[in-house]
Amino acid sequence: MNVTENLDADPVPELLRYCQERQVYINPKICPKRVEGRGLGVYATGRLIKGERLIHVPTATLFTTRRVPNSFANAHARKSIPVHALLAAYFAFGDDEQHRSLAPWMATWPKLSDFTASMPMTWNPLSRTGVGNLSSQKLDSEAPPSESSGFSPIPPPLIGSYLSFNDSTMDGCGSTTLVSAQLSKFRAHVSSLKPILDSEVYHQLQDPYSPSRYRFIHAWLCVNTRCFSYTTPGTKRPSDPNEAMALCPGMDLFNHAATPSVKTKYDRSGYFTVADRAHEVGEEILFNYGHHVNDVLWTEYGFLLDELSYDAIRIDKLVLAGLDEKQRGLLEHHGYLNDYWLTKDGVCWRTEVVGWLSVLSQNQWESMLEGNYDPEADETIGKHQVSEKKILKRKRQGLVAAHRLICASWIARVEKDARVSLKGLSTMSMAEVLQILGDSDSAIRNQRSHDVHDLSDAEVQEIKTKEARERHAMCVKRWTQLLELGTRAREATETVK
């Protein structure tokens, strides 16, 4: 993977030559280019119309496990190795001579330092704990973080403190602990490689800070952030969508947007993209990596969108905290246990259901789920029963008020934690930032072991400080977004009569 690290020169001309040699069609009115703060992206150099084909990668040029030589992994060994792991292992430890032909394409991939600055799975494990009793924490531990007082540099959805401990399921927007789930997947992939790697290399992969480990992390994250969903036409799609994976040279340069401007498809001829609307000269052409909330984008791709209308936060642990075993059992029986979300519009329906469980009788609550009872609607009674009507109305208003108070308490907790964490982050000294968010000197040296010269102590400190500040800024940005999310949810809830 060394060939990907020298990005001082503009890699675009060589990439275009590489694509042309492999019959990759690139519309002459588009071109990849590097923009400060955004990295490489694809931009219109001429006016594009809706439906115009932009890039077409032939099937023969797609990089799938079929391109990994049998000399690297035989057919028997491949059966037990996930596609992601096999591709990453080949890019990290495959034959350098074979890699040389891929160098123009691989040179456009992110550097390891791009990932270590932005992706929490690569950060100091202290960043995944509460800032409090740091003296008892081990810097080299990959164990799940323990609960502690103070504030959390990384917001809850990534480390799990707002999520139910007994829910380890994955869903469309994430998992109970995004970073822990990602680290577990990575470690499982490392273990799967034992049959195909040299014993010394495999042993080095067990060391969290070895050069070989960082080399594999780099390749693993490149595959993770640049893969496309693909199943060879005519074959059965794997039950695990992660096994349907291909890399598409040239097409992997599109940046993400919640509202994309292109559509992608694949058929027997390969993978291609078409413009979903007209583009003017100089406009960036944007792809969509999936309907993900910001916490997933941060965990899986290393960035946060400034504006995301459907952003949300999982609050399972907050919602379940005050319930007893009987109530949790009722939720599980009726299919409402876990998967609770807070959006800018307030809490989701599943969350509201939990709130009603605390204020209604069991019969009323179950009748509500069946659609036979609306706790917010006026009771139907005889027109002459005026006093009873008033009593029922006051009772209904009391139930509604109690329910809204419960839902509001969950929103308030998110707002409070955001304010506390933002205050904590803003008052951290540089020494604390380096301790909690910075890497050790040896880790930085091993991450950059491919450099043409040994780093001086001053260079190590410069890298450490710059990277820790970038990580700190990402934490501040996400907590700021969550504070705004909570504020907007509270305001939306307060306007409901």
Automatic annotation (TrEMBL):
Residues 28-290 form the SET domain. It comes from the Eukaryota. GO terms for molecular function: protein-lysine N-methyltransferase activity. SUPFAM superfamilies: SET domain (SSF82199). InterPro entries: SET_dom, SET_dom_sf, SETD3_SETD6_MTase. Gene3D superfamilies: set domain protein methyltransferase, domain 1. It holds the Pfam family SET. PANTHER family: SET DOMAIN-CONTAINING PROTEIN, UNCHARACTERIZED PUTATIVE METHYLTRANSFERASE. This is SET domain-containing protein. It comes from Cyphellophora europaea (strain CBS 101466) (Phialophora europaea).
